[in-house]
Amino acid sequence: MLREALPKIVTPLPGPNAQKIIDRREAAMPGAIKCGYPCVIKRGEGAMFEDVDGNIFLDWVGGVGVLNIGYSHPELIEAVKDQSEKFFHAMMNITTHEPYIKMAEKMNEIVPVKGDKKKTMFVNSGAEADENAVKIAKSYTGRPNIIVFTGAFHGRTQMTMAMTAKKAYAIGMGPFPDGVYRAEFPNLYRKPEGMTDEEAIQYYIDKLEQVFIEATPKDATAAIVFEPVQGEGGFVPAPIEWVKAVRKICDDNGILMITDEVQSGWARSGRMFASEYFAEAGCAPDIMTTAKSIAGGLPLSAVTASAEIMDAVTPGTIGGTYCGNPVSCASALKVAEVMERDDYPGKARAIADKLNKTFNEWKEKYEVIGDVRGMGCMMGVEFVTDKKSKTPNAELVTNIINAAVQKGLIMEAAGTYNNVIRFLCPLCATDAQIDAGLEIYEAAIKECL
């Protein structure tokens, strides 16, 4: 069964069938939508997929965090079939449908935002969720500006391209919306030389305070938006003491704290949401966004906040035609049910324990591994030319990824300088699959060195 299989390459990549489809892709699609992997998926189960030439791949990217529950989960398939036979679409501005309400009720139950009574709205993508969270914050506070961070990725709409730090995602797309200001994110691996972690956290807090002096006054700031673990920024986790300080700044000045859990949500962090760690430390967000794995691969995203914040939004400024599609909501309800029942956060913690041990052994063994970091099973390995200089080594990362795919392991780069390899494997991966992936990964490192 594919679900239990191990990587196996039976043809040179790309295989002949894959090459034909890749050629058709080049003729039919914009070149700006790039793909560097020499395979074409035929079917997928769990953490594995088979391509059109019979090659079997272990997927450690999972649709960039979309497949935490894995490919083709049987219960999701049944939930989608059942809803699709009733109706595909019903716009909530025209006729209420219960799947939306049920999923909103579930989100209000499990999302760790401030407030006793919560409300949730649905949109279609992570970028839409982030943009709507900003709109909600502006509507609630009556203020025009937001603060985001270095290393941030929030999407590809005009607003979220402005929020995103890495401008490789926004070349030629300006001018961008006004009112978006940037502070320095606390990357403890790349903190100023000679500082302790404690000193560095205060340094980054001071950098945030400087933004209020030089860019947006506190009484003009609607929200501070950050990812609990930066995704495209290189899988950099936000230190809890820094989050506590951000929460206090927000509380003292009427600013809303927004956590972007588009990638970190749905058991990836070792909790259902990374913001649970913050809530336990007394620094829960005011608004949380989530997408990616929420519906197991169907388009859906969510914004959750207190009823007080949500009910202050000006009517007509949020919503949309496909928002909260009933088939996607049916799938999302089943995702939540299965993840809670089968303890997917526990699966993430178990995989993370193995990865932490192995990756840190590699860190001691290889001069080119500078840092191993993350939260739960959202982990990154940062590659450098040498440990002393910490010079980013993007070329090596590219070579390792290309070598690994030829052996049946799919991995992806991240980071401002593309020198981090991210781990987003489906959390249903078997022990044997994780071991096989680690074996291929290290073989690729050795080959490329």
From TrEMBL:
Reactions it catalyzes: (S)-3-amino-2-methylpropanoate + 2-oxoglutarate = 2-methyl-3-oxopropanoate + L-glutamate; 4-aminobutanoate + 2-oxoglutarate = succinate semialdehyde + L-glutamate
Biological or metabolic pathway of the protein: Amino-acid degradation; 4-aminobutanoate degradation
Alphabetic keyword roster: Aminotransferase, Pyridoxal phosphate, Transferase
The enzyme's E.C. designation: 2.6.1.19, 2.6.1.22
Pfam families, A to Z: Aminotran_3
GO MF annotations in UniProt: (S)-3-amino-2-methylpropionate transaminase activity; 4-aminobutyrate:2-oxoglutarate transaminase activity; identical protein binding; pyridoxal phosphate binding
Top EC class of this enzyme: transferase
Required co-factors: pyridoxal 5'-phosphate
Family, per entry: Belongs to the class-III pyridoxal-phosphate-dependent aminotransferase family.
Protein name: (S)-3-amino-2-methylpropionate transaminase
Native species: Zhenpiania hominis
